[in-house]
Amino acid sequence: MSAREEILARVRKAVAGAEDVEIPRAYRTERRLDDIVGLFAERVDDYRAIVHVVPAAEVPGKIDECLGERRMIVPDGFDRAGGWDDVNTADGVVTNCAVAIAETGTIVLDHGPGQGTRAQTLVPDYHLCVVRADQIVPGVPEAVARLDPARPLTWISGPSATSDIELNRVEGVHGPRTLEVIIST
């Protein structure tokens, strides 16, 4: 018997004969926000990301402006020609997202079309993410409802950052040091 099986057997023995208890679940599953785009932009900015809110027609020009001369990874399915695919030599990555959360300023990638692989989004030092206004939801419950739990999910809340034991902030340790977000309205 493995350690796992042994532990589970002990748990089953301990709860054997206990009556079933109904656990009330009153989780909020939906919420309305007056300015969902504004709140998302504010929260992403709070995380030290660079934020641009532009009309959909101006997104291609804003992408070109943000990228400049950087050598970029452009994942399959992202609507833009060119790009690099070597995570070790690229300056950054440009992606879409699966969903974005206004309350938390979080971007979620499920690594579908236009979102790249985990390595492509975590190794380069710069990440430019294009978020459509219709991808922004008020909170985590609404985001989870849109996601497939079988897909690999990467939740991004600002540039990669951590603190050492003396609470000194260090950026870029576990992912891109710079996060730039274009919100397409």
TrEMBL record:
It comes from the Bacteria. Residues 86-183 form the LUD domain. This is L-lactate dehydrogenase complex protein LldG.
